[in-house]
Structures are given as C-alpha cells and as structure tokens.
Design a protein that fits this description.
Strand order of the largest sheet: 1-2
Low-confidence stretches: none
Oligomer: single chain
Mean pLDDT: 87
Radius of gyration: 20 Å
Order of helices and strands: HHHEEHHHHHH
C-alpha cells in the first residue's frame, strides 16, 4: 500500500529531524545543571534536595516492593482521555486492569497517543493541587514536602515509562519507533528543564534561550556537514 509506506517514511523522516532538537534539549539541561551546581554537596539547595530525596525514595520502593501497576495503567489511560478531551474528542469506555487498559476516543493524533509517555499526570496533579491550595492557605511550611512529592511522582512516571518502552506498545507502533522515541525523549527532557526552573534561580526565559541557541548551533553544524559531503560528491 503506497499510502501507508509514504506515511511511515514521512514519520521516520520527521523523527530524524527531531533528533537535533533532542540533542539541543539535552545540552540545555546539562548547561542548567552546571549553572546551578554548587561546589560541594552541602551547598545544594534544600528545594533540590527535596526533589532528589523524593525521587530516590520512589526508586527504592520501585525495586524493593511490587510496583503499583494498576495505578500506572490508570494514569496511562486517563492521560490518553485527558489529552483527547483537550483536543475536542469524545471519550468513552475506559478500562483499567493490572494486565493493561484501554480507552475509546472519537479522534486521535500523536499527542493523544504518546501523551502518557511524556506527560507525568500525577506530578502535574500534585503541582496544580499545591498551587490551588496555596491561594487559600499558607503552605510555606510544607513547601519542601511538596517538592519531595514532585520528585516522588516524577520518579513514578520515569520508571514506568522506561519500563513500558521495553515492552510491546501499540502506541509506539502506531507512529513508528523513530518518531515516537524522539517525541517522548524531547518532551521528557524539556520537562526536566522545567523541574530545574522550579527548584533553582533559572528562568523559563533562560530555558528557551539555551534551547534556541543549541538548536541553531546543531542545525548549523548539520547544514555544514551536508554541504561538505555534497561538495565531496560533486568533485
């Protein structure tokens, strides 16, 4: 079927085009970490420690007790449903079990399909709940506990996402491995950048500036490489 082949090829091509942005996002996060990294461990900010400890506690639990698979499957399917609803689709027939789940939506696209792999639902809920409650209550005394819970829930998202990608996933197959992995990696790394902003003096403006700088630099190097190869072929 020529149409299906062209569609698959197009997705592979777009996925390859996203690779330089993935590299740029990685360099962006590394630069932010270098900028906020203190000279000694004792100088790490309490906010960053809270997220690290929360993340570490989750990973300890993940390898020592049976993982809450049903809780992950629920978040996975609910994330599909949430993104579908945000994009105007009708949602029905959500099913959740320890062996898997499903949700029926009236329309689909790559964001709806891949959202559970880059959108940490429980972390977003924790962040939203804290900010809503903080409008009515003084939660200053609980700020570090909240950040610990952010690290804990993001660890939940990361471990289950990585684990699920090692299994057969119809979501990934639908849009192809190259495109799907590029999108998932890019959005998750940008998410890490946002968590760094949350616990440091870095700003969204710095995040965007670094990402733009590294993206332009990598694309320029790619262009120079293509020109050099072409010139060699034409000689």
């Amino acid at each position: 079927m020529p149409g299906a082949f062209i569609q698959r090829t197009g997705r592979v091509f777009v996925g390859l085009l996203l690779v330089p942005f993935c590299i740029a996002a990685t360099l962006m996060v590394v630069s932010l970490l270098k900028a906020i990294s203190p000279d000694c461990v004792s100088a790490i900010s309490p906010a960053l420690w809270a997220m690290i400890i929360g993340f570490g506690i989750w990973n300890f639990l993940y390898v020592t007790v049976p993982p809450p698979v049903r809780t992950y499957v629920f978040a996975h399917e609910l994330t599909h449903a949430l993104w579908a609803s945000l994009m105007g689709a009708r949602v029905s027939k959500m099913r959740v079990s320890k062996s898997g789940g499903s949700v029926t939506v009236s329309k689909n696209n790559f964001l709806i399909t891949l959202a559970p792999y880059f959108f940490p639902l429980y972390t977003v809920l924790v962040v939203l709940l804290f900010y809503v409650l903080s409008r009515f209550l003084d939660l200053g005394a609980y700020h570090l506990y909240w950040l610990g819970l952010v690290g804990f829930t993001w660890g939940f998202h990361l471990t289950f996402t990585v684990g699920s990608l090692f299994e057969h996933q119809t979501d990934i197959k639908e849009y192809g491995h190259v495109f799907s992995y590029a999108v998932i990696y890019l959005f998750n790394v940008i998410g890490i950048g946002l968590w760094i902003v949350l616990v440091s003096d870095a700003t969204i403006g710095q995040l965007a500036s670094l990402f733009g700088h590294f993206s332009a630099d990598i694309w320029l190097k790619c262009w120079e490489t293509v020109v050099s190869i072409w010139a060699g072929i034409m000689q």
